[in-house]
Amino acid sequence: MAVSEKQPKMPVSHRVLAVAGFLIAPALWIALKHFGLVSDRYLPSPDAVIRACWELEPNIFVHLAFTAFRLACGFVAGVGTGILLGIAVTRSKILSYLISPMLDSMRSIPAMAIVPFFLLWFGFSEEGKILLVVTGIAFNIAVAVNQVLREIPEKHRIMFKSFGIKASSMTRDYSIPRILETLLPTIRFSLSTAIGVVIVSELLGSQVGLGYVVQTARSTFSMHVIFLATILLGILSAIVDRVVTTLWNRAVYWR
113: domain range? Predict the structure, then answer.
């Protein structure tokens, strides 16, 4: 009977350092404001930022929920679209000749540059914001998937011939597992891109969301509200990144 190996626990000293690293920025912020080293014009006080949670209408957490929803829908759809497109281009020479030039050209265009087009096409609709995120990350992921699947090690090719593995089963038995093993860094980078695209779309055309909060606070010089939205965006980014990394590592169980 196979015995499962337990993952080594993190040493206590490492946990203390991790907690300390998390608390350095808040502690420095509190110290700077306590001793009056930075004016409120450049760095608002922590209590002013906390009060901003209840000053906004609707509540700041409503804005956070809308941003998280747009990010989650666009990110999942973008990753799925990119993976499917990359597999299709790799398996079909016709699609490779037809689509590869477009992929190479589209992925070099900054995601922020296509925001005005989507605002003109879709207005302030939720569908437009989600499609914007999909477009912003799907092409890069497709190119990465295509690159991964084209660089099959020679030993794997020999194994396929030796065991008589059919081409029809390659996607399920080899392509998807290999993508899962190698694509996580690209996925995490795409997450950062997706967050930026969501915020820019909310800055330019939305009535709710963290980007809208930043835009409104900028026009009224409410620095404490901008700090609050930025902090919540950072927390959202860290949580989503941790969730994606955890789920991806669980999916690659054979490692």
Answer: 46-251
